[in-house]
Automatic annotation (TrEMBL):
Pfam families given in the database record: HAMP, HATPase_c, HisKA
GO terms assigned for molecular function: phosphorelay sensor kinase activity
PROSITE patterns named in the record: HAMP, HIS_KIN
Domain of life: Bacteria
Disordered as annotated region, ranges: 465-491
Lineage, uppermost ranks: Bacteria, Pseudomonadati, Pseudomonadota, Gammaproteobacteria, Pseudomonadales
Enzyme class: transferase
Residue intervals of the HAMP domain: 184-237
Domain Histidine kinase stretches: 245-462
Catalytic reaction equation(s): ATP + protein L-histidine = ADP + protein N-phospho-L-histidine
Name of the molecule in the record: histidine kinase
EC number annotated for this UniProt entry: 2.7.13.3
GO cellular component: plasma membrane
Keywords: Kinase, Membrane, Phosphoprotein, Transferase, Transmembrane, Transmembrane helix, Two-component regulatory system
């Protein structure tokens, strides 16, 4: 899988493109060399044959047919290796002189050139060889063939072709290897940037992308990203300072106002006035709950994996939450079903996980009408721990499923119900800390009330925790946030 991922990288594809261009250039160069070399040797052979033909023609003009026969026999005698091929016949193909006995059957061009094989079919007694010759007619009805043994030339061409093929193969192999090594080096540096970026997104804002000190493009990119991160952290610290100021300036007066209203509620005798004061207390509680939820979500999003990670029994945690909410479901005469597999363990913060589970169960009960159905399940699938909540409520339209995790976002059908639109935002923040993935689907697709199934897949605990140790080692003690307490579910 690692090799396949390496082959899909843009750096390897760029190296592969360069390899194709380079190999094409090498191929064209070698093809040109072969064409020039083979063409030169073939031209030399043809020139040698033409020179012999010119010499024989001169002998024929000076000495006649007998002189031509004599010179051919002399040349055959002086050439025991038969590098030159001769055949002189009458017009009815009767041999007069030469070192082959009959005319070869070969591919003959319009200019009279022919390529053939020296074998028994032409009266050749030696080993089979390749030859090239030219045929023309002599005055008096005679036919003359003059050629050369080109077996060595053909073998040399084959050697050159083999060398070119091997050269191309080695070139491609080296280019492929070089491209792989180059892309591997590039991919490693990109992966360092990606890994650091992912850890920063998970909340480790103190991390920075390492540089090699080479001042190359990657170092410049890393330095620019680090400067950008410094600026972002500075701005976030400013926002956090403003949030702390708001918490100090507004939360305390709101709490004091709420307490005063509650005290007033005790002393008021008029029933109508008591109702008004009671509504004011409820509104103050809603404001405080919203304010606390916002601060809690911001705190979770900024600290990331710095939560108090321990091995948690997810099945026991969900069972505790179900025991708490089962009575609430009974009050609405809802069917509350549980399917909890034993021994499902994960690494996480128990308080945050309990809050996430409680939020989802509370939402399912709240948005499911009376006599509806609530289903809670815990199971393990491979290396994933699954927590799932089903309901038969109003559901969420498909085009809004990706938006419900935004703060204050509420589905149109649920706007008349109490809530502040922060519950799923808090669930998303907790799931992200635990490397979870949230999937929203319809419980009963196609029906008027499709319901909603919320599935959260988190990595299951399989043995010794490396994640907890890595988290504790990476975070400076001065930046580790305090452990949050479990609050009431946010909806």
């Amino acid at each position: 899988m690692k090799l396949l991922s390496q082959l899909r990288t843009s750096s390897f594809q760029l190296a592969l493109l360069y390899m194709v261009v380079f190999a094409t250039s090498v191929f064209l160069l070698l093809a040109f060399i072969y064409w020039r070399t083979a063409g030169f040797m073939t031209a030399q052979t043809d020139e040698t044959i033409e020179a012999e033909i010119a010499g024989l023609a001169e002998q024929y003009r000076g000495r006649g047919v007998n002189g031509l026969i004599t010179i051919i026999r002399e040349r055959v005698t002086r050439d025991p290796n038969a590098k030159s091929i001769y055949l002189l016949t009458t017009d009815d193909f009767l041999k007069l002189a030469g070192n082959i006995d009959s005319w070869p059957e070969g591919a003959r061009s319009e200019s009279g050139w022919i390529n053939f094989t020296l074998d028994e079919s032409v009266g050749w007694t030696g080993p089979k060889r390749l030859a090239r010759a030219r045929i023309f007619e002599v005055q008096g009805g005679l036919r003359l063939l003059v050629g050369r043994d080109v077996d060595e030339l053909t073998n040399l061409k084959r050697v050159i072709e083999t060398a070119i093929n091997w050269g191309m193969g080695i070139t491609l192999a080296l280019a492929l290897l070089g491209g792989f090594l180059m892309s591997r080096s590039t991919t490693r540096r990109i992966e360092v940037i990606n890994n650091t970026s992912r850890r920063i997104m998970n909340g480790h804002l103190s991390l920075r992308i390492p540089t090699r000190g080479t001042e190359d493009d990657f170092d410049q990119l890393a330095e620019n990203l680090n400067q950008m991160l410094d600026r972002i952290v500075y701005l976030m610290e400013g926002i956090r300072h403003v949030s702390d100021s708001i918490a100090h300036d507004l939360r305390t007066p709101l709490t004091r106002l709420r307490n005063q209203l509650e005290s007033t509620l005790i002393t008021v005798d008029d029933e109508e006035a008591r109702d008004h004061v009671g509504q004011a207390v409820a509104e103050a509680d809603q404001l405080l709950a919203t304010f606390n939820a916002l601060l809690r979500i911001a705190r979770l999003e900024t600290r990331g994996n710095a939560a108090d990670m321990k091995v948690v029994s997810l099945d026991e945690l969900v069972s505790d939450a179900c025991e708490l909410y089962e009575a609430v479901a009974e009050d609405k005469e809802q069917s509350f079903e549980q399917s909890v597999e034993q021994g499902v363990m994960i690494e996480g913060d128990r308080d945050l996980l309990f809050q996430m589970v409680s939020n989802l169960i509370d939402n399912a009960i709240k948005y499911t009408p009376e006599h509806g159905r609530i289903g809670v399940a815990v199971r393990r699938e491979g290396n994933d721990a699954i927590f799932e909540v089903q309901d038969s409520g109003i559901g969420i339209p498909d085009d809004e499923k990706d938006q419900v995790f935004q703060r204050f976002y509420r589905v149109g059908k649920s706007r008349s119900l109490p809530g502040n639109g922060l519950g799923l935002s808090l669930v998303s923040a907790v799931a992200e800390i635990h490397q979870g993935r949230i999937i929203l689907t319809d419980t009963y697709p196609g029906e008027a009330k499709p319901g909603l199934t919320v599935t959260i897949r988190m990595p299951a605990y399989t043995g010794e925790s490396k994640r907890i140790k890595a988290t504790q080692a990476e975070l400076p003690a001065s930046t580790a946030p305090s452990r949050p307490t479990a609050d009431a579910p946010e909806t």
